[in-house]
Amino acid sequence: MAIAFPVRLGAAENTLIEQLKSVGADATAERITVAGLPTRRVEAYHYTDLKLLLKAIPPLAQAANEASAPALRIAGAYQLMIANGMIQSHATAPAGVIVGKAAGTALSTRDDVLVHLNGAFARQSLTLTLENSVDTVIQIDRRIEGLAAHAADSVKIFVADGASATIIETFSGSDAAHVGNHATYVALGKDARLTHITVDLSARAVSHFATNEYHVGEGANLRTLVVHAGAGLARTHVFPRYEGTGAHGDITGLNLVSDGQHADITMDALHAVPHTTSQPLFKSIARGRGKSIVQGKLVVARDAQKTDAKFMHQGLMLSDEAEILSKPELEIYADDVVCGHGSTCGKLDEDSMFYLMSRGIPKEEAETMMVRGFLDELVDPIEDEALAEALHGVIDGWLLGK
Amino acid sequence: MTTPILEIRNLHARIEDREILKGVNLIIPAGEVHAIMGRNGSGKSTLSYVLAGKDDYEVTEGEILLNGESILEMEPNERAAAGVFLAFQYPIEIPGVATMTFLKAAMNAQRKARGEAELLTPEFMRLVKEAGTQLQVDTAMLKRPLNVGFSGGEKKRAEIMQMALLKPALCVLDETDSGLDIDALQVVSKGVNALRSDSRSMLVITHYQRLLNHIVPDVVHVFSDGRIVESGDKDLALQLEAKGYADFDGAAA
């Protein structure tokens, strides 16, 4: 017989329970009452102990009265905005793009506290249907404005058979101590191609949580990039499922952390059918007492023969106090697959620095060049030039913002 | 007498607790090419790194003057802007940094340090093409990441091409002949010889006389146990080749 020990609830948990009850999410309230927020003893949260890190939850977000300047401008992009969980009015969509709304979260049910909370609090989902090849970059600008607020929002994207698109989501807002819980659900039809980028540019006081769920169909090709470059506490879930023969994912991510920041990218990928491939590649750059975490789990279903997947995480330490943590996991039920994982961590190479400086390049510029070189693999595959330039801007801004 | 391009006075340097340079004295007047020969481990490469400012080495005594000005307090990039160029024995591979990007950054950084305007792209492309043609460095190679996957010969040609573009007052060539076959050696030597001028000096470090048939020095110095033990004209290199270094070790003792 299991003996249940009562969990001591903290201020954040008590607020969450009240808020959950106020929206009628009694089941989720009950779960938190019984189990509390996950601690390091919960494997998936081992390095991001929410009970410890999440000290307070601000009041539930009200509609925003004002909006700050966009955190990232991409020349020529079609912009959509969600502020404090509410979808804002928007310009006419480019050809092949249908914009709409749906009630509630777009995420599938999953045994995860952040997914449950999004399900409880997200009132509506912005829906995007991409019917054919869309050349215009689509930017979804997700904000939390005004006084400190607990906001949840959701986006649902369908990429039709044979369609292709590039979507960037940016997260920003006022510099209050918001807690954001963002969801994106993406389904790719047969032979669809999508580049999906999410960039957190929130203020340092913000706790940023995001869950990106992907369903990759037959012959479809998905490229993703998560960038954490803002919030003091950030965790993005990346949950790709390869569901059709020939589905492929280039799942990439980048944690840029400075002193006092904690950024976590947690991937849990499922290769559900035979002949699917993925190349998860994550990079971390940490300075000061910054902490970067990348967890990457590859699950291969019993029938998913000929799966080819390799997880890679490369860390670059710019200080002795920084921490970069890497947790690859393989869970393979098929017997004819090629799966692997690798992690590396190091400092900027001194001989390379000397070489660049010996040619007249000052130290800081040499460092920037080398860091750009280190990150080239992530930004280089992004075909849209304005988008790649904007991402270089985010990276350079972080490098210079010591 | 005019100021020499390079003057080294009683230079002592160590790495951790080990003293490697033990009182180097050397004067290279403008326009001259001097060669330093010595066996492995005699401190030749250390001398080149100390000139370029690698911070693994600590200078404990002595002075290095470039055009009469001390460079010991300068960072490597400041020395480069002042006119020092080291052609590396093993050029470093830097993934993710395109050779072209690197060349432009280096040229513009030096121009900026000297208070000159940045190069415009068409002018930069013209200079690169000009230097590349002579050293058989093509556009495809320039688009590749710096030195990554370059053959031994390509790396050395790229080094000399950088030297041609940066127009230094003092060229230090550290074992530029290592890893080169005869054909590559000729291309590289031709490139170096084309850069000889009345206003530029060169220090050619090698342990084989072979290179000195192609780049003919004005003066040859023999390096042993951290200092110069003998100096002479180019025939000294031939003597060394015939007799080996053993006789000169005696002079050092």
From TrEMBL, chain A:
| Domain SUF system FeS cluster assembly SufBD core positions | 151-374
- Please give the coiled-coil regions recorded for this protein: none
Q: Which organism is it from?
A: Devosia psychrophila
Q: Under what name is this protein listed?
A: Fe-S cluster assembly protein SufD
In terms of InterPro entries, this protein maps to: Fe-S_cluster_assembly_SufBD, SUF_FeS_clus_asmbl_SufBD_core, SUF_FeS_clus_asmbl_SufBD_sf, SUF_FeS_clus_asmbl_SufD
Supply the NCBIfam families for this chain. sufD
Q: Name one GO biological process term.
A: iron-sulfur cluster assembly
Automatic annotation (TrEMBL), chain B:
Keyword set includes DNA damage = no
Reply yes or no: does the keyword Lipid metabolism apply.
no
Q: Where is the ABC transporter domain?
A: 6-250
Q: Which InterPro entries match?
A: AAA+_ATPase, ABC_transporter-like_ATP-bd, FeS-cluster_ATPase_SufC, P-loop_NTPase
Keywords, alphabetical: ATP-binding, Nucleotide-binding
Q: Which residues form a coiled coil?
A: none
Q: Which domain of life is it from?
A: Bacteria
Under the GO molecular function aspect, what terms does this record hold? ATP binding; ATP hydrolysis activity
Q: Which family does it belong to?
A: Belongs to the ABC transporter superfamily. Ycf16 family.
Enumerate the NCBIfam families for this protein.
sufC (TIGR01978)
Q: What is this protein called?
A: Cysteine desulfurase
Starting at the broadest rank, the lineage of the source organism is: Bacteria, Pseudomonadati, Pseudomonadota, Alphaproteobacteria, Hyphomicrobiales
